[in-house]
Design brief:
Blueprint (H helix, E strand, L loop, with lengths): L1 E4 L3 E7 L15 E6 L1 H13 L6 E8 L2 H12 L3 E8 L4 E7 L5 E6 L13 H4 L4 E4 L5 H13 L3 E5 L9 H9 L3 E5 H10 L8 H12 L2 E5 L5 E4 L5 E4 L12 H15 L3 H15 L12 H9 L2
Bound molecules: alpha-D-ribofuranose (RIB).
């Protein structure tokens, strides 16, 4: 089983020609709502790729007692995800305000709401004991993440931690604790540089050097996703594996990183070695950018296999 402990949001999305600068107003024809939240997105990506297979996906999260919360829960269930550990709380369901420009690039503000009510105790030991992989991100309280990561390590469950979004203040002590509890860290170029800076490793702006420093110092595997340049896995011994991304004309890049993480976690749960899991994850992430909305373009296994077979 793969357990995702993380955020569940409703995404309110406006397409714009160019994302507004601070203080500016831009017009959009309309707003659309899509299912989102990094945790939920990663759970859906894993569930789509594994549909009909032996690996179950469970979501641990919190939603409000409101129409968004009900819709988000229904969506997770429709994707075949176990939602027994999703708690309904007094805060409103998390909501993300997203603008997507003509190049498919986005800017996101998350109103966390119910996500901040998520507690480590919401992950029952009975569920954790069935897991082979635990997936974490940074949209729920860090202390709760750290607690479930420690429990997972103790139970022999592999911890895949997606360090996104980067907190406004990255404290060295909690970063050190986070990295020590992580088996596979997944970051983008900027996050790699921020995390290295937070733990006082000067790598400048070089994301591969940053990834190397983090992997070596914390005896972890650091995967750096680099958009069109694909992804790089850096081992504690400095070894490096590259998975290329296929050229695409993106419609919406929202959720591409989450697709990568969910499909990667599923591959690791299946026992793939990291390079193969990454190649599959890169291809899935590219496909996810071809449709508007974080989850709408996430591929099912057969679509991904067809895409990979095209070479
Ligand atoms: O990674 C994309 C996600 O970030 C969106 O779905 C939004 O909800 C925010 O959490």
């Amino acid at each position: 089983m793969i357990v995702v402990f993380g955020s569940i949001n409703m995404d309110l999305v406006a397409r714009v020609q160019a994302i507004a600068r601070p203080g500016a107003t831009v017009l959009s024809r309309r707003a659309d709502s899509f299912f989102g939240g990094k945790g939920a997105n990663q759970a859906v990506a894993a569930a789509r790729i594994g549909r009909g297979g032996p690996i179950a996906i469970a979501m641990v999260g919190a939603v409000g007692n409101d129409p968004f919360g009900k819709a988000c829960l229904d969506n997770l269930r429709e994707n075949g995800i176990d939602t027994q550990a999703v708690r309904i709380v007094g805060e409103p369901t998390g909501c993300a305000f997203i603008t997507v420009d003509d190049t498919g690039e986005n800017a996101i503000t998350v109103a966390s709401g119910a996500n901040m009510a998520l507690r480590a105790a919401d992950l029952p030991q009975s569920l954790l004991s069935k897991a082979s992989v635990l997936v974490l991100q940074m949209e729920v309280p860090l202390g709760e993440n750290l607690e479930v990561a420690a429990r997972a390590r103790q139970a022999g469950v592999r911890v895949v931690w997606n360090f996104a979004p980067v907190p406004a203040v990255t404290e060295r002590a909690s970063m050190t604790e986070l990295l020590a509890a992580t088996d596979v860290l997944v970051v983008n170029e900027h996050e790699a540089v921020s995390i290295a800076a937070a733990v006082a490793m000067s790598a400048g702006e070089d994301y591969l050097e940053a990834g190397k420093a983090v992997a070596r110092s914390f005896a972890t595997t650091c995967i750096v996703t680099a958009g069109a340049r694909g992804a790089f896995a850096i081992g504690a011994d400095g070894s490096q594996i590259h998975a290329a991304a296929r050229p695409i004309a993106p419609v919406d890049t929202t959720g591409a990183g989450d697709t990568f993480v969910g499909v990667l976690a599923h591959g690791l749960g299946e026992g793939l070695e990291i390079g193969n899991a990454m190649r599959r994850a890169c291809a899935a992430a590219s496909l996810s950018c071809l449709t508007a909305g974080a989850q709408a373009g996430m591929p099912f296994r057969d679509a991904l296999e067809r895409h990979l077979a095209q070479g």
